[in-house]
Design a protein that fits this description.
Strand content: 15-25%
Number of strands: 20
Structural class: alpha+beta
Largest sheet: 8 strands, antiparallel
Low-confidence stretches: 1-65, 103-111, 505-512
Mean pLDDT: 83
Distance between the termini: 16 Å
Number of helices: 16
Helix content: 25-40%
Length: 512
Amino acid sequence: RRAAGLWAVIAVGTVSVDSSPATIHPATHTHHSGLRSDVFIGARTTVPPPHPPTKSIKPGTDRLPDGANSVLTSLLESEGLGRIIRNNTMGFWVGVVAGESAATKSTTRVNRLWTGAAGAALGWSNAYGTPQVAATLTDIVPAGSLTKTFTAAAVMRLVDAGELDLDEAVAPLANVLLEREANTTLEQLYPPAISNVSFRDLLSMRAGLSDYSTSAVFKATETELTTDLDPISYLTNDTLTPHKDVWRCGNATACDPPLYNSVGFLVLGLALAGAANVSTWEEYDQLRGAVPPGSVADGRYPGLTFFKHGPCSSYPNVTHYYELTRHGEYVDQINTSCLNGWAFGNVGLPAVTAATFFHDLVGPRPSIVSAESAIEMQQWGQVLAWHWWERYGLGLMWLPLERYGEAVPTTPGFEPFRFAVGHNGEDYGTYIHAAYLPSLDATVTFMMSKESGIWVNGTVIRYPEVLFCLAYRAVFHFLDQGELGDAAFRCDDRARPPLPPPPPPHSSDPPR
């Protein structure tokens, strides 16, 4: 989207974590040999046994008991994750919300030591500042496609209130703002099938409309890094969103298999704005649409921010994050537009806040939507096109941990823990994994401020999920499943299957 037009080139190389003293490797040195499978096994540093907190940890606050945060941080450090993060000059944030009990391998339920929320921040929020600024739990990380789950929650809240039906057409409500701001309608922009597309079709990624062009968005902003691409531009600009005359499944309203699509959630955002009877897209309050008003007043989701206009630096507490360009240079994105795709990519939040939101959404006692709607959101469709295992519900992803945690699925006793429910997000440098694990009754969020060119033990890892794997090992210890986590999460970069083939013409780029 924006890395070629450099706002500030802040590094020409990365640091190998196993060099002493640290060795700077040229950024052009990007061989992709795999990570040794035995690198981290048995390498854990002894960590003192945790002590139970004197009181329950309340999710959504920034005053968490030091004991829980310290133990979580120590476990992450013992996996070598802190060393990797610091030597790669980046930030990494972890949020955990643990229910009151955990499922053991025998499927019995036992009381666990830690309940509530805990977090850890490794490395830096401003990695190249003078001086460097350490990462903190209050850092707001632009989270890209996590926005889709917030948009979905807003729709389901209107369904719960009886103001929408999942199977009603989206066009009438979306057209309210389109006609007002662009003098057009969805029916004028897309093939006739658009008139029958329902909220369910868009939420499940089954609608046949074309998605935006990543390369075109990149080109549109490469020389003007602060350009805000608003939702009307995405829909009406034929360069940004080409092939609008193509419907990927002919005359059918819904298509299988589902295909990952961001513009569909932008259309949902316009429909939500239409339902709210606001005059412009900026006037629609995404925060109060997605979560109960009482939770906003109570401060349950601190730092939850929906970007609208201006660079990321214009918002308080937003972390610096870095995109690796094709020239091998990291570019600080803090002074570029933070909008990043309204209703599908414009959320930022701290890691603990993200974990709290997803736990409140799909945990054992849903409080954002009704229990019935939470179940409805988890009705999984077919495997997404151009994905290995991931399936999509309504604004939620079925996330296999062999994909996002580098887990070995055949590990004895791991079967109940193989998948999570949540969403991933990327924002041109950041990479976020937010997931509720039903068998652990726990929600985790992992966030990183670089997603490419990361060095581990003298080699550039092929997949950044290696870092998620190390974090999962620590979290399983934190949740009293350390032996199972050690066995399942091998963190072997070579064990992953090859990437899928490139998508066909007129479809969206496959998200990682």
